[in-house]
Amino acid sequence: MDFKFQDLNVAIIGETITDEFVPVRYQGQSMKSFCPVFELVDGDKQIQMGGASAIARHLEGFVAKVEVFSNDPADIVKTRYMDAGSGQKHLEFNHFNPKNFQDVAIDTNDYDVVIVADFGHGFCNNVEINDGFHLMCQTNSHNFGFNRLSKWKGKKKKSVCIDLREASLQINHRIDGCTDELLTELYNYELNTQDLFVTLGKKGSVYTNGEIVDRHSSFPTQIVDTIGAGDAFFGFATLCSALNLESKLYLPSLAASLSTTWLCNDKAVNPINLAEHADKYL
What we know:
Blueprint: E1 9-14, E2 16-29, E3 36-40, E4 46-51, H1 52-59, E5 65-69, E6 76-83, E7 89-96, E8 104-106, E9 113-118, E10 127-129, E11 133-137, E12 157-163, H2 164-171, H3 180-187, E13 193-199, E14 205-208, E15 213-216, H4 229-242, H5 250-259, H6 271-279
Parallel strand pairs: 1-5, 1-9, 2-6, 8-10, 9-11, 11-12, 12-13
Antiparallel strand pairs: 2-3, 2-4, 6-7, 13-14, 14-15
Helix pairs in contact: 1-4, 4-5
């Protein structure tokens, strides 16, 4: 596969999130305090770097250079207690230390592609940047309702990438699907962008530049974990947008599909595994 991105100089601005996975075994419920009880299982605790760091690892094998502007990994830590048998998440504890975040100033003219991955933990609030970047504003349990794309409406974006829940928050009503009419409404509602990508989960993805609408179904695969799939999609969508490729959804959809075949950010998309994954659908 010819990915056409080999000469691109890419900057990624956003939070690095440290994901910890601790194996446990459910023992039952305490009769006195009515809380679940878990046993720590012998085994190595897994530590992975997510967020902006994960996006960088996905892209570094495809482009000339990736430069990351982010927080210290110890500033944002998400610890998940996972069932040692089923892999189901039982509990999650989050640690945030925004006091350590440094101010960042970026001139988009210094790079071929500038990506802002705003996970809503505060790092991107300290970013000074001019127009011409690619944006994702993620909604999660920590920032629900407060990390909308509208916070960036004063900046002209090259592309924006969101999911259905983020789209619903953006236009103030619930979206279960994305018709052409809803996509047009979303595109014209405080986005200020050239390209818009909306991920639809199992239903695939949709793209518009305000004139055309393109859709792509999801690639069927044996899913291990969907965490990080949106980040993989976003990273490759920015490259397709930057080079204005005729098909802007195929590669991001393929990369997102591949990323669901391992736990969270345990691995990264690279030219070899992506080409092998593509061969399954030829």
